[in-house]
Specification:
- The chain is an alpha/beta fold.
- 35% of the residues lie in helices and 29% in strands.
- The strands form two sheets. The chain has a six-stranded mixed sheet with strand order 6-7-8-3-9-10. Strands 2-1-4-5 form a four-stranded antiparallel sheet, with helices on one face.
- The longest helix is centred in the C-terminal third of the chain and has 18 residues.
- It is globular.
- The two termini are 20 Å apart.
- The chain binds adenosine-5'-triphosphate and magnesium ion.
């Protein structure tokens, strides 16, 4: 799916990390549009700043300078509480390392992001169970992360990212460390979701197979996007 309206516009983005006085410039005047309902792939060498960029698009971190517009709204101009609400409602994350909470079951991990705002916990758990079912884990709802395989954990992480029906799903190496079969299963899931829901996906990957299948690929080089 790919309609040509820009959902996200990233304008002259700079991000440096600081170690005392020493500046490490990572993103250096990066411009990028993400269109509504597209699957955008981001590739680039290790350490070039892909995760940094994804975290900033997801508002988990702030740019040093520059802007991110979601449907013309400058999100970093929002007060912190509104920014947190925006993040929780509109953005789903699949992290580079799945970040599941070890002391909670698969079901609880998926449900958690919706329980905070929910009037009805039972409905949230039903949604979480339906999502686990969708990702093929109906037999694993009560398992803890340590009792799941790597591919299963990643599927739980995808279900978790979807619980609030976000407009945008940001995925950092969703198939990293998985064998070919698990990785293909994850990719099929992402394409299916995109086709059914029209959700927009931004996917960071080293996986050539994945990069070949997305709607559009951009490469990060020297802190900027090259096509
Ligand atoms: N919190 C931080 N503090 C200081 N430096 C950081 C921090 N996070 C990342 N960096 C540095 O910024 C650069 C970009 O890191 P980033 O994690 O964005 O790279 P990446 O492209 O995602 O790499 P990979 O493909 O290995 O995941 C790296 O040189 C890294 O060492
Ligand atoms: Mg990374």
């Amino acid at each position: 799916m790919n309609s040509k309206e820009a959902l996200i516009r990233i304008v002259d983005l700079h991000k440096s990390y600081y170690d005392g006085e020493a500046e490490l410039p990572v993103l250096q005047g990066l411009d990028l549009k993400v269109n509504t309902s597209e699957i955008l792939g981001i590739i680039g060498a290790s350490g070039v700043g892909k995760s940094t960029l994804l975290h900033i698009i997801g508002t988990l971190d702030r740019p040093t300078t520059g802007h991110i517009l979601y449907e013309d709204q400058d999100i970093f101009a929002l007060p912190d509480t509104e920014l947190a609400r925006f993040r929780n409602q509109e953005i789903g994350f699949v992290f580079q390392f799945h970040h599941l909470l070890p002391e909670f079951t698969a079901l609880e991990n998926v449900a958690m992001g919706a329980l905070i705002a929910a009037a009805n916990n039972k409905a949230v758990y039903e949604d979480a169970e339906a999502l686990l079912n969708y990702v093929g884990l109906s037999e694993r709802v009560s398992h803890y992360p340590s009792q799941l395989s790597g591919g299963e954990r990643q599927r739980v992480a995808i279900a978790r990212a979807l619980i609030n029906k976000p407009k945008v799903v940001l995925a950092d190496e969703p198939t990293g460390n998985l064998d070919r079969r698990s990785s293909d299963a994850i990719l099929e899931l992402l394409w299916d979701l995109n086709a059914k829901s029209g959700q927009t996906f931004v996917i960071v990957t080293h996986n050539r197979e994945l990069a070949r299948q997305v709607d559009r690929v951009v490469e990060l080089v020297d802190g900027k996007v090259v096509l």
